[in-house]
Amino acid sequence: MADVILSNGREIIFDLHKVSQKEYRALFSNEQPDTEGDATVGRACGMSADEVADLPQPDYRLLVRAFFVKAREPLADPN
Predict the structure, then answer these.
(1) What is the C-alpha separation between 52 and 64, in angstroms, rounded?
(2) 27 exposed, middle or buried (CB, 10 Å; 0-12, 13-18, 19+)?
């Protein structure tokens, strides 16, 4: 089951095992460049940092919101 579906129909499933706790914490740092944040989110969903950055703005917001929803409850049972 997809965690999010982009406007082009692409289904995204996040794999939080591809993001370290250090990388996750860095997402909340004002000093972290946008490209690094995009790379972290992209790695979790099988996209490059450029692919994430090139998404239409509504899809970008949808993707990032879905990432944080899943990341807040990484042990939640999907069933």
Answers:
(1) 9
(2) middle
Burial 58-77 (b: 16+ CB within 10 A, else e): ebbebbbebbeebeeeeeee
Mapped onto helix, strand or coil, the DSSP state of residue 5 is strand
- pLDDT by residue, tens only, the chain of 79 residues: 899 999 999 999 999 999 999 999 999 999 999 999 999 999 999 999 999 999 999 999 999 999 999 999 888 866 5
Where do the structural domains in the chain lie, given as residue ranges?
4-72
Look at residue 75 in the predicted model and tell me its pLDDT: 82
- DSSP annotation of 12: E
Token pair for residue 12?
């995204």
